[in-house]
Amino acid sequence: MSTVDRLSVLKTYKLFVGGKFPRSESGRVYEVTDAKGAWLANAPLSSRKDARDAVVAARKAFGPWSGATAYNRGQILYRVAEMLEGRREQFAAEVAAADGVSAKKAAARVDAAIDRWVWYAGWSDK
Questions:
Q1: Which carries the bigger pLDDT value, residue 125 or residue 104?
Q2: Residue 103 has what pLDDT?
Q3: Which end of the chain has fewer CB atoms surrounding its CB within 10 Å, N or C?
Q4: 88-93 long-range Cβ contacts below 8 angstroms, 24+ apart
Q5: What does the angle CA 54 – CA 125 – CA 74 come to, to the nearest 5 degrees?
Q6: Same domain assignment for residues 82 and 55
Q7: 88 and 46, same structural domain?
Q8: Domain carrying residue 24
Q9: Tens digits of residue pLDDT in 7-49
Q10: Mind spelling out the 3-state secondary structure of 38-105?
Q11: Average pLDDT, the chain
C-alpha cells in the first residue's frame, strides 16, 4: 500500500453572531500563524457593519438571558466548561502551536480557561 500525499484542507473561520455563522460583510480574511510563522487558519476581518450586527444581536439576546433563572444561566456556563474539557487535548495542542509554548504551559492555559468557566457558572446563582 503506497502513501499518498494529501491536500491539506485550509480552515477559514466565520463570525458567530446571533446564533449563526455569517461571513464577514467585507468577505476579507487575515492569516493566523503559529509562533514560527506557519499558517494555521484564516480569520474573518470584520467591518463596522459586522460589529453593529453583533451589538444588535447581543441586545436582542439580553432579554431572554437576563430573564432566565440564575440556575439555568449557571448550567449553560457549566456546559461550555464541559465542552472545553471534552476537547482539552485539541485546544492545548493548538495553543502550543499558536503561541510557541511548551505542551505543559499550553495545557495549563486551557485548564485555567476551563476553571474560569466553572467559577463563573458557580457564581451565577449567588
A1: 104
A2: 96
A3: N
A4: 88/114
A5: 50
A6: no
A7: no
A8: 7-67
A9: 777 778 899 999 999 999 999 999 988 888 888 889 999 999 9
A10: CEEEEEECCCHHHHHHHHHHHHHHHHHHHHCCHHHHHHHHHHHHHHHHHCHHHHHHHHHHHHCCCHHH
A11: 92
The sign of the dihedral angle between the CA atoms of 61, 62, 68, 69 is positive
> Cell numbers at residue 28, please?
476579507
The residues near 81 (Cβ < 8 Å, ≥ 6 apart) are 114, 117, 118, 121
pLDDT of 1 reads 53
93, amino acid identity: A
Query: What is the dihedral angle through the alpha carbons of 17, 62, 114, 95, rounded to the nearest 10 degrees?
Result: 30
Mean pLDDT calculated for residue range 71-84? 96
Same domain for 12 and 62? yes
Over its C-alpha atoms, the chain yields an Rg (Å, rounded) of 18
Give me the pLDDT at residue 6, please.
Answer: 82
